[in-house]
Amino acid sequence: MNIVLLSGGSGKRLWPLSNDVRSKQFIKIFKGENGEYESMVQRMYRQIRALDREAKITVATSKAQVSAIHNQLGEKVGISVEPCRRDTFPAIVLAITYLADIQKVSPKEPVVVCPVDPYVEQDYFDALKTLCSQAEKEEANLVLMGIEPTYPSEKYGYILPEDKKCISAVSCFKEKPDIQTAKRYIAQGALWNGGVFAFKLEYLLKKAHELIDFTDYQDLFSKYETLEKISFDYAVVEKEPLIQVMRFGGQWKDLGTWNTLSEAMEESCIGEGIMNEKCTNVHIINELNVPVLAMGLHDVVISASSDGILVSDKEQSSYIKPYVDKIDQQIMFAEKSWGSFHVLDVEHESLTVKVTLNKGHSMNYHSHKNRDEVWTVILGSGRTIVDGMEQQVHAGDVITMQAGCRHTIIAETELKLIEVQLGREISVYDKQKFALE
Amino acid sequence: MNIVLLSGGSGKRLWPLSNDVRSKQFIKIFKGENGEYESMVQRMYRQIRALDREAKITVATSKAQVSAIHNQLGEKVGISVEPCRRDTFPAIVLAITYLADIQKVSPKEPVVVCPVDPYVEQDYFDALKTLCSQAEKEEANLVLMGIEPTYPSEKYGYILPEDKKCISAVSCFKEKPDIQTAKRYIAQGALWNGGVFAFKLEYLLKKAHELIDFTDYQDLFSKYETLEKISFDYAVVEKEPLIQVMRFGGQWKDLGTWNTLSEAMEESCIGEGIMNEKCTNVHIINELNVPVLAMGLHDVVISASSDGILVSDKEQSSYIKPYVDKIDQQIMFAEKSWGSFHVLDVEHESLTVKVTLNKGHSMNYHSHKNRDEVWTVILGSGRTIVDGMEQQVHAGDVITMQAGCRHTIIAETELKLIEVQLGREISVYDKQKFALE
User: Fold this and answer.
1) ipTM above 0.90, yes or no
2) pTM over 0.90
3) B132 three-class SS
C-alpha cells in the first residue's frame, strides 16, 4: 500500500503543547503499545505498519516539521518536503511526483492520501486498504472516503452519495455548512469529506501535468514557490465526473481542540499531576517537571509546558486561538532531528539553554556574530570542533566560544549540555552555517 | 512603640508559593505604595513605619526565615532568632529578653506583640498604639486586643468581655469552638483572640523569670532547646487575673488560604496572565516567566511557581495541605539574605542553578565533597576566591571548581551566574563552610 500522510501546518489550538514549531500531531499524548506515550504521527505510523509491514509511507509536510518527523519516526520514513506553503493541490502533486520519481512507485499502483491527525482505530486502515482496491478497479478515477457523521459538524465539507450502498457514485459536494444546514445534509444521507481518497498514481500524474507545467520531481520542487495556491478539492475533486465514495462508519475523530483531544486520552493525567476527589471530568497534561495540583474542578483541561499554562473549561478550549495569537512568547522547547533544545533562563544579555543531542548526531558547524557561548557538558561524551580544532569531551568539560568562532559538537553517546549565550543582541537569526573542512 | 512581630512557621497552605523554606508572609502579592508588589511582612513593616518612624520593630522567628527577613526588610530590622521551635511562650520570652538585653529597652516601656500575617489597614496600628497606652496605665498586667468577629470562625479562641465598653475586664476565655458554639459565643458578645496583646516589659520579664530559670538573653538562648513547649495563652494569659480586653472593629483578615488571600488582591492577576471574558471570580498569581491562559473558569485560583502549579476551586483551596504534604518536590526557588537561587534543570548527575547575588553580598566560603561546579557569570561583576586565589570576574567569565576546592564570589554590582553542579551525589547537605583566610 502507498500512503501519503498529509502533515499539516503548525497550530495554536493546542497551546501550550503546540506552537509555531510544534504541530499538534507531534504531541505525545496517547498510550502506545509498549506503555510509552506516542504522538498522533507515531500512533498512525504504528497502526499502518501493524496492518501492512511493507506499506510505503510518505509524509507530505513543510520544512519546519522535517526534524520532528525524523525525530519521531526515524530516518527511514519517506518525506516530501514542501519548500513553502501552497495549499493541498500542489502539496499532493509534489508528494505523488516524489512517489513516482524518487520512490519509483509504478504509475499503475494505487495511492491513498489522508491527513495525519484524525484519531482512528484499526478498522480505518482496513478501510484504506479497501479504498485502494476500489481505486485499482478503475470504476472511477477517484474514490473518496465518506465518513458517517456523528454530529452536524461545521468543520467538514459534505459528500452526497447517489445511494446508500457501501460504494456509491457521488451525487454532489457541499461546502462547510452551518449547523442547521449540516442537519439537513445529514437527513439527506450526506457523509463527511475528511480529505481521504485513493486513485491510481498515473491518473493524478496526468492531472498534474495538465494543470502544472513541469517535467519531474526536481523541476516541480524548484518552481514550487511559483505555483498557484489551490486546494485539491477545488482543482480536482469537484471537477472529476468519474468519482465514487466509500462509506466508513468506524471511529474518526478530529482531535483539534483540547476538548476533543482530552476525550481520547486513556488516563486523566499525563505527567506529574494530582487531583482531589472533588474533581470531575478533569484532564491534566503536564510536560513540566513540577507537579500540577487540581482541587474541586469540573470539566476543565489543564495543560502545562515550557511555553505556558492553559487552564480551560473544556468547551471554552475551542476558542483559545485568538488569545494565544496575542501571546508573544519566545519558543522555549523544540524537537529537532538531532535532539532537542530547552530554554532554561532568559536574561537581558544572556540566554541559558539545555541542549540534548541524540547518539551519533551533531549540530551544524556554525558561528554567531554577536554572542559568545559557553558549553558545560552534563551527560555523555563526544567531540567538539572549534575553529577546526577537534577535541574529545565528556561530562564536566567546559568549552568557551567567542563570537565569530566556528563550532559544533558530535554526540558519541546521548549527550546533554548547558549552553550559556552571552551578548547584547541574542537572536536565533544570528547563525552562519559552514561545511566542515 | 516597641513591637514584637511573631513570624510563624513555614506553611504549605499557600503552595506552590509557600513551601518548607518560604512562608506565606514572604509572598509578594500586595500592591505597595510605589506600585511594586510587597509581601505581608513588608506591608506590615511599612504600615508600622508610616505610623511611627521611630518604632522599635523586632521580628521573632526561626533560623530558616532570617535570610528572607533581611532580604525583604533590610539589614537593620531587629530579629530575635529562636534556635529551635518551642511554641509561643518561649518565643515571646526570648524576644522580650532580646528587647531588654540587646536592644536596651527600658523595663518601664510597654511592648505590643502581634502576628505578622493578618491583613489589616492603618486603623489597626492606631489600635496597637492605644493598646500600648492602655498597658502603660497599669490598670491591668495584660491588655488583649479583642477582634469583633465577622463570622463564626473555628480558627480563633474567643474572649468574653465583662461589658461592651471599648476597654473592659475579661470575663473568660474560650478555646477554638465548632461553628455552632462559635455562634453562641458571638451572641454572648465574645471577641476573637487574635494573639495581639500589650504589657509593660518589666511585667513579662518577671513572669519569665518565675517560669524559666535563666539569667539573661545569652543564657536563655543557649538553653532554649531544653525549654518546655508551651503556649503563651496557656502559660500566662489564662492564669492572669489582671487582664483587660480592648475591642477592635476594623479590618482584620487571616489570609491563610488561597481563598482569603485572593480576596485581598487588588488585581485579579499578578504576573503574566490572560483571562477570557467568560471567566468570573478568577485569580492568577504567576511567578513563572511564561503566561497562564484561563478560559471560562469560575471561582478558581491559579497559582504557579517554580515549585508547581495549583488550580483550585476557591473554596476547595482551604483543603490543599494533605495533598501538598504528599508532594516530594525539591525546592526550586529560595530567597536568601544575599540574594536568591533558582533551580533551572535537574538531571541524574547534574543540577543547573541560577544564582543572584545582591550588590555587596557574597556566598559563604565553602567547598563540596562530591561535586564539581562550573560558574558562568551572566550579569555584573565581582571577585571570586578559589582556594585562596582572588580574581576579578565579570559577565562572560567562567570559573571551574573541582570537588574539595574552597570557593566564594563577592558581588560588586548585582551579579548573576549560572552554576552547573556535576557529580554522582548532589545534595544540599554536601557543603563545608570555612572562614576566609
Assistant:
1) no
2) no
3) helix
